[in-house]
Amino acid sequence: xxxxxxxxxxxxxxxxxxxxxxxxxxxxxxxxxxxxxxxxxxxxxxxxxxxxxxxxxxxxxxxxxxxxxxxxxxxxxxxxxxxxxxxxxxxxxxxxxxxxxxxxxxxxxxxxxxxxxxxxxxxxxxxxxxxxxxxxxxxxxxxxxxxxxxxxxxxxxxxxxxxxxxxxxxxxxxxxxxxxxxxxxxxxxxxxxxxxxxxxxxxxxxxxxxxxxxxxxxxxxxxxxxxxxxxxxxxxxxxxxxxxxxxxxxxxxxxxxxxxxxxxxxxxxxxxxxxxxxxxxxxxxxxxxxxxxxxxxxxxxxxxxxxxxxxxxxxxxxxxxxxxxxxxxxxxxxxxxxxxxxxxxxxxxxxxxxxxxxxxxxxxxxxxxxx
Length: 371
Ligand SMILES: NC(=O)c1ccc[n+]([C@@H]2O[C@H](COP(=O)([O-])OP(=O)(O)OC[C@H]3O[C@@H](n4cnc5c(N)ncnc54)[C@H](OP(=O)(O)O)[C@@H]3O)[C@@H](O)[C@H]2O)c1
Known about the structure:
Blueprint: E1 2-7, H1 12-23, E2 28-35, H2 40-49, E3 53-56, E4 69-71, H3 73-80, E5 87-90, H4 98-106, E6 111-113, H5 116-126, E7 133-135, H6 138-147, E8 155-162, H7 180-183, H8 193-201, H9 203-216, E9 223-227, E10 233-239, E11 244-248, H10 254-262, H11 276-279, H12 294-304, H13 308-324, H14 330-342, H15 352-369
Parallel strand pairs: 1-2, 1-5, 2-3, 3-4, 5-6, 6-7, 8-9
Antiparallel strand pairs: 8-10, 10-11
Helix pairs in contact: 1-10, 4-5, 5-9, 8-13, 9-12, 13-14, 13-15
The protein binds NADP nicotinamide-adenine-dinucleotide phosphate.
């Protein structure tokens, strides 16, 4: 029995994780579930998986969860991250995932994470702990699996694929009219709202390049993105002799999730396998850096390091929320991110307090600039 904790259990990745756990009930024991609020989904999960602990960020007084112990606040995170749990799965969306990631890694626990925002924001202060991480982001899981079979000195490039998002073939001049509904209509993946908008702006690919840089300790000049509309190849490693190793599977997050759950073993997980003949063709295109400026802007911020990747991450989350609330346009997201990055004068973070200071200062800056 592997004891696991699922942080963000009610979201897209969290629910798909529990879907695998449900199929292998005799191999996993769910010790903790964590969510932002006490929703119907969380209630059902508690009933089905009977965790010993539940963490709820916004905890109301009148919650009744039978024999489950309730946790909340910073102390709740500090408490659960010290528990004797075999694997923590972080499926929290956005910067809320930072402190849980920090505490779990500081306590030297095994972490499987989809939360790229935390990896990026903690990269400058915690990268020496990143070998404890099993990536769940599909591209990073793919690269991780390929790197396990490769000598580091043989690698000349890492290629991360992108579906291109809903506006891959959309005329650039029409992007200013894009609605929230259109931006949320991802052609390949069904995901939470924040990452879906990031996929529409290609910001997600920029964040993934920074994530790959920190996770695999590889220079930016060796990481690149390619548009691959079929989303069948998730990651490619190019070797010095020109050989390419690629990781292929159908577009289903349960592949990388189950790889992390069973690591270092593999299981037949009951998902339809890829039929190459049915698939027919795989296409690849150069990203349109002009139409999607955030891809370059984000990688530049990653290269600058220091406070920049944090400012980028915070600004993106703030502006995506504004777009989702109908307060700014689709193109305002990139406009304001560039503006905020140009006005940064924060010192480089040296510890977790510095990271949270950069977050607070960036939010204040955004309040002034955007409102
Ligand atoms: N979805 C995908 O296919 C996919 C693929 C690759 C990578 N990722 C990455 O995985 C992460 C999660 O994405 P998602 O699409 O699954 O997001 P999502 O559907 O929006 O789910 C977010 C989850 O985080 C929980 N949460 C928010 N704040 C929390 C807090 N302070 N403490 C505990 N739980 C909290 C939410 O709880 P409530 O339900 O109570 O709000 C929810 O369970 C993101 O970093 C994303 O970039 C996702």
